[in-house]
Amino acid sequence: MKENHPARNTKVMNRFDVTSRLIARLKNEEAVIGGIGNTNFDLWAAGHRPQNFYMLGSMGLAFPIALGVALAQPNRRVFALEGDGSLLMQLGCLSTIATLKPENLTMVVMDNGIYQITGAQPTPAARVADLVAIAVSSGLVNSAWAADEEDFERLIDQSLSASGPMLIGVRIDDRPGTATTRRDPVQIRERFMLGLGVREPL
Q1: Could you say which of 78, 84, 119, 156 would form a disulfide bridge with 125 (CB–CB 3.0 to 4.6 Å)?
Q2: In the chain, how many H helices and how many E strands?
């Protein structure tokens, strides 16, 4: 029987390059939440900012954390970067985000079809699960695959003035992250709270 895989007319891109393109377009202290592993390693390497939060040790929580930030600070644009394997562990967050409809939240899912950190085991996204289609079916109608780097930048620019949550899917290669974040959760949290203006410096 012929397998029916959804067509994705998308270029395979590089996570660090795409992340760098995102950071270069941020001008107004937008918050960026990086998921565990290579996603936040490349976020760190793309240009450390006090408004960046680097997830440590919990798969699938970048989108839920970003949702909390977006609801708490509705006047601040919030971006969340997550891998396909991590998102698959927390798919329920998509329908929650669609229900709450934060106007200032953009989610970027980096899909290389593998659990890269744990040994490159294939994820369901590699063969049968179209994460953008799942997002649309969950109620996130403003969801799309980025066709290439220029299209990714166009979608990011569109998201900066969007009036509802947006999800951007990016097919990426399997190159490892380009840096390693400082693994001190307390310092990461405190720096982020200062960056969001909700904690006064000591």
Answers
A1: 84
A2: 8, 8
